[in-house]
Specification:
The protein is an alpha+beta fold and about 260 residues long. The protein has twelve helices and nine strands. It is globular, with a radius of gyration of 23 Å. InterPro entries: P-loop_NTPase (IPR027417), T4SS_component (IPR051162), TraG/VirD4 (IPR003688).
């Protein structure tokens, strides 16, 4: 244990507690962390003392980092937890660029699918502050209502809709639902109405650019169709195997290391 504040709590505060207080607080801690300790997969992921990769290094050296957070594989809670952890780590890595010369800050893009599962204050901070550190954000979700998140327990209410639309200068819109069209239409008025946005043809879109700080007139376009491009499955498998050999660790070794450390 290296954190002096945490160490002091165990050495002084916890040590002075009576047996009854200790008997009450230990089950509290166990309930909070039990789900991660008892789940073998999660224990092996977050129970290691050192990560095999550095997010800041990934960002600075233009590397690719793919994170599979499939709920079918990880489960709902585990997927959300790991996603929130990674978003926070990427945000902190971007903020570390404060000490890097502007000329050495290369563009880095964070892509988040099913974005509604990872709506946090960190995302709002990335939208408003991380741009100067050359961190871009690409988020995918179904409708604008998912950008609002409230928690009855903490009485918190997070609305990212205004933060997103307020920080995006260039806008492109494919066909959307009636409720979303009503909100988005004002960005493309007077050329396009909400009914136009609802009735856009397949694989067509409308766009409005910011040119030299001024908003252009909205126009329609036919973007390139990404579904016509095919990747190379054999090359993908080779990259995955190379990454596993370079950054992966043997699961059996990790499990033995963790079990030894917790004294089980």
């Amino acid at each position: 244990l290296k954190n002096p504040i945490v160490k002091a709590w165990w050495d002084f505060t916890f040590a002075k507690m009576g047996e009854r207080e200790k008997g009450e607080i230990i089950p509290y801690f166990a309930a909070k962390f039990g789900g991660f300790i008892t789940n073998t997969m999660m224990r092996n992921i977050i129970g290691q003392t050192k990560s095999s990769f550095d997010v800041f290094d990934v960002m600075q050296n233009k590397k690719l980092l793919f994170i599979n957070l499939s709920k079918g594989t990880l489960g709902d809670i585990n997927s959300t937890l790991l996603g929130l952890i990674m978003v926070s780590k990427i945000q902190m890595a971007a903020m570390r660029r404060q000490n890097v010369d502007k000329e050495e800050r290369s563009d880095f893009f964070l892509y988040i699918d099913e974005f509604q599962n990872y709506v946090t204050d960190s995302i709002e901070s990335i939208l408003s502050e991380a741009r100067k550190y050359r961190l871009g954000l690409v988020i995918a979700h179904q409708y604008l209502g998912q950008l609002q998140k409230s928690d009855a327990l903490t009485k918190s209410n997070l609305n990212l809709k205004d933060a997103i639309f307020g920080n995006v200068a260039n806008k492109i819109c494919y066909r959307v639902g009636p409720e979303d069209a009503e909100f988005i239409a004002k960005d493309f008025a007077p050329v396009f109405s909400d009914q136009d946005l609802v009735n856009i043809d397949n694989r067509k879109a409308v766009m409005r650019l910011c040119i030299d700080g001024q908003a252009s007139q909205a126009f329609s376009l036919i973007p390139s169709n990404p579904y016509t491009e095919k990747g190379d499955p054999m090359l993908a498998r080779a990259y995955k195997e190379l990454s596993r050999l370079k950054y992966g660790r043997d699961r059996e070794f990790i499990e033995k290391e963790i079990i030894f450390r917790i004294g089980a």
